[in-house]
Amino acid sequence: MDVIMIVELFVILLALYMGSRYGSLALGAISGIGLAILVFGFQMKPGTPPTDVIYIIIAAVTCAGMLQASGGMDWMIQLAERLLRRNPGSITFLAPLCTFFLTVMVGTGHVVYTLMPIICDIALKKGIRPERPCGVASIASQLGITCSPIAAAVASFVVISSANGFEVTNLQVVAVTIPASIIGLICASAFSYKRGLDLDKDPKFQARCADPETYKYMYGNTATLLDREVSKEARLSVYIFLAALGVIVLFSVCQIAGCDIRPLFATGSVDANGNPVVKPLAMNIIIQIVMIAAAAFMVILAKAQPKKAVSGAVWQSGMVAVVAIYGIAWLADTYFSNYMDEMKAGLGDIVATYPWAISLAFFAVSVLINSQGAVVVSMLPLAYSLGIPGPVLLGVFPSVYGYFFIPNYPSDIATVNFDRSGTTVIGKYLLNHSFMMPGLVSVGVSTVVAYGITLLFF
Known about the structure:
Blueprint: H1 3-22, H2 26-41, H3 51-69, H4 72-86, H5 91-106, H6 115-126, H7 131-143, H8 152-163, H9 170-192, H10 203-210, H11 212-219, H12 232-257, E1 264-270, E2 276-280, H13 283-301, H14 306-311, H15 313-338, H16 340-353, H17 358-369, H18 372-385, H19 390-395, H20 410-418, H21 436-457
Antiparallel strand pairs: 1-2
């Protein structure tokens, strides 16, 4: 690695650092400054923007935004709340599973914000330290991204893997990541079950209770959605959304079973016998078509208001993700594509002996860029170019979630604010926060289990 290569890498890291400091849209926009320096300053050939991934995100987020606008998401959260309130003593285990499956269904972890204050309220009223379920539930909401068939990270993995000779469907990916992540979450919940002092033995919490105003703030209100009426349109929007997921799964199941029902189209080339070569429609295109169509049906049949969808948290956070992935992935692809030979020479022996070690790189990059989709788009092509087999990369797929390490992600910050008891904290030394232990345990266990599953079945 020469001096110029190191300087250019420093430009990338500085752009990512500055973007993370400003957050939101700045992460992608400031990556553009780094890209400009590499292209105009160092004369590097620009990489390829991740357009396929961006289109999938736009389609999925539009559909999820319509679901939120029609009230369907509130109904889903009501169902989760009923489950939690009927089993308050098991909330440390049930709350993470609720946030996990909400993310799996919708494809984004930002759907759980309404559920977080409810989790805290139930735990507090039951006398359970809210940090225990809240910390794991926040982690679970992001861990579910690699388990959603419509999430950008999963779709990106399938598209990039197919381009590199590893034919795998969305359903096959989540068939590995879902059981692995559930086992990881159960382990994290078990570690959290008696984490920290019980509320009646916590001097800081007892001091808060001694103040009448603080006590009223903690116990005087009840966070709930159960008193909100659910319209028939809201229910219909959920049914439309589930039907869309069912269609996507059906295409994947038929593909796996050998009776592929995807439409065939000519590629414009011919085989050795002069016959036209045809290929089935790619799954990423199918996801886009189905999600956009489902969003339209929600507008027509479920009375979803487009203006309300655009102003909703799900659609806005999704568009932020589009800009972030656009800038970050383009910046990373520019650097890696220009130094592919050097990367192979420097890392080839390591990954040949320890191919699973790429998971450490995935995790480290995720800490910096706060996006699992961006990690996949920027790092997976490099991993394939280094000769790492597709099944190994599928096995370490859960390791693309590492942005809990530095607690600056919106879901973690929101969870701290939602916890009226003050037990869910960032920590004086930044890294000693409430999400570190459940994050390390869940991601670590999930990655090991997923790697084991791929060794057995691939």
